[in-house]
Amino acid sequence: MSLVLLGQIAWVLMVVGWYVIRFPFERRAKRARVSATRRGLAETLRMAISFTGLGVLPGLFVATGFPRFATYEPIALQAGLGLLAALLALVLFRLTHKALGKMWSVSLDIRDKHKLVTSGIYKRVRHPMYTAFWTMALAQALLLPNWIAGLSGLVGFGTLFFLRIGPEEAMMEETFGEDYRAYKERTARIIPGVY
């Protein structure tokens, strides 16, 4: 089996694994009442850009090989690191969804009786779901040896992250006040001890 095919299969399995983890939470979230939201055109555009980078472009490459001109020959170390990153991303997704439970939301929503989650994986990191997506985007870059499809996840998700993190933290501070400010003081955004 070629490294290109191995990477493509691993990417598909990572995406399927992500959806299997997310599906029950997404279904439950549709039934939960939202008391405050920051959804709107800006959020829709951020999500569309992220989805294009993490889904559309890599999916097109895996399905058709497009854009062929940007494809290169990967090395075994790259494929191995991509597999490890994909596994780590799925573990992080599972831990974040488990910790959030009923508080999970795909977007910037506050639920009725919303509680600030500060335990489990959230004990040291405020946004481990974003850590998981960064890891998924890195896995994609390593698994898909195409300068456009591989790197599109980092660009697409990076756009969502940097445009959303400020409004999200402002919403959390508005909702939870001093509790959230204290939580921010003792935690990192996405990487413990770094950022």
UniProtKB/TrEMBL annotation:
UniProt keyword annotation of Plastid present: no
Keyword Transcription: no
Subcellular location: Membrane
InterPro entries: ICMT_MeTrfase (IPR007269), Isoprenylcys_mtase (IPR054851)
Record-linked Pfam families: ICMT
Bilayer topology: Multi-pass membrane protein
Top-rank taxon: Bacteria
Transmembrane segments: 6-25, 45-63, 75-95, 133-163
GO terms, biological process: methylation
Organism expressing this protein natively: Fulvimarina manganoxydans
Name of the protein in question: Protein-S-isoprenylcysteine O-methyltransferase Ste14
Keyword terms: Membrane, Methyltransferase, Transferase, Transmembrane, Transmembrane helix
PANTHER family, per the entry: PROTEIN-S ISOPRENYLCYSTEINE O-METHYLTRANSFERASE, PROTEIN-S-ISOPRENYLCYSTEINE O-METHYLTRANSFERASE
Source organism phylogeny: Bacteria, Pseudomonadati, Pseudomonadota, Alphaproteobacteria, Hyphomicrobiales
Major place of residence: membrane
GO molecular function terms attached to this record: protein C-terminal S-isoprenylcysteine carboxyl O-methyltransferase activity
GO annotations of cellular component type: membrane
